[in-house]
Write a structure and sequence with these properties.
The protein has about 450 residues and is α/β, with parallel strands linked by helices. It has 4 domains: about 110 residues, Rossmann fold (3-Layer(aba) Sandwich), CATH 3.40.50.2300; about 170 residues, 3-Layer(aba) Sandwich (Rossmann fold), CATH 3.40.50; about 70 residues, Orthogonal Bundle (Helicase, Ruva Protein, domain 3), CATH 1.10.8.60; about 45 residues, Orthogonal Bundle (Arc Repressor Mutant, subunit A). The chain has 19 helices and 16 strands. Strands 2-1-3-6-7 form a 5-stranded parallel β-sheet, sandwiched between helices. Strands 9-10-13-8-14 form a 5-stranded parallel β-sheet. Helix 2 packs parallel to helix 3, helix 6 packs across helix 7 and helix 18 packs across helix 19. The termini are far apart.
Amino acid sequence: MHRKTRRQPRVLVVDDEPDLLELLELTLSRMGLDAVRADSVTTAIRLLDKEPFDLCLTDMRLPDGDGLRVIEHINGRGLDIPVAVITAYGSAANAVAALKAGAFDYLSKPVALEQLRALVKQALKVPEMPQPASSYRLLGESPAMLQARALIERLARTQAPVFITGESGTGKELAARAIHSGSLRAEQPFVAVNCGAIPENLMESEFFGYKKGAFTGADDDRDGFFQAANGGTLFLDEVADLPLAMQVKLLRVIQEKRVRKVGSPLEEAIDVRIISATHKRLEALVESGDFRQDLYYRLHVIELSMPSLREMREDIPLFVNGILAKFSRGTPAKLDAEALAALERYPFPGNVRELENILERGLSLAADPLRITVEDLHLTPVPDEADLSLPAGDKWPLQDYLDRVERHAINEALEKTRFNRTAAAKLLGITFRAMRYRMERLGIK
């Protein structure tokens, strides 16, 4: 009786340069992999339709098209094959296009064999793409959250740097953890860093580590955030708060993929995926000179925008039930109808984090531990009508001022489009659904 032997992992290599094909095939074979060659998009597609593969390496420039067609074919067929692209002359534009199309990483020509081997090991480490852990699942069934979750699922399949935007309290770190937990790095460390909470004089040693004796108090060697996240994901929250001097050092580490501990003459290689986030407009900081443009382009490869709670009003009951269940030790408390209606009208400048605080306070103040009334919530009253006669400098409370500005903009758009809500939404750059919710919240008839 013959024992069935395990199949060698198979790699499809797509390139029209014979010398490079030979080099890649030789390198892969030494890693115990079975390399199959294709010299065109047409040949690659034919092989993908006929044979199973565990990885695809494709050049971007091919005689009958570009590597994006290979990626699109794999995605269109629903094939579970990670794809990495080979870009000529370090073309950032091609690399970004490939990552956005679904490639998980890229190599620049001339191909460095050390990087190739690291990329292949990362791609073939696990046979199947793990699913995001349930503890990192972002709640919500609104169109805005469904769109965000779909993009998170796509981003989990790549190694591309991700830049997460959104107001405070919208779950940017939760999204970063979801990307990590659904990626090939899921079993490796996830290190979250609040860049605004580290004193400037300690930043270098905290990020890169230090050697014993490097400075007063350095009694032992210590790893930094990059070493701690090696093989996994480093999440840089509030990255806009980094001082310019630290931005220069961070840029070099991202470019070279090597770090030098404070007090050490040697550099060490690191393999870290960077996910960054901020609630500030980074483009404005680049324009003002407070954030380096070259670092911005390194971090801002693919953007994920987390929706505000105001864009997910239909999800408020779902959030409320989930939060109350988390806070309750036994039977979860419930909101009465008036309290829920008040929350659905509330503007939530602090988003889901503020909703949690409001509900926790309501539970503490409620006379009945199983029933929360509108009085228990202690919400700031939301005016029904905007008073646009106030002087331009009157910006208190902030949310009231923003509501007045938003109401004025919507009314102006409606007048310009003869009260066609679809046309007004297009003029404002928002969806019709978002337009409808804003009109309902602001009491615009």
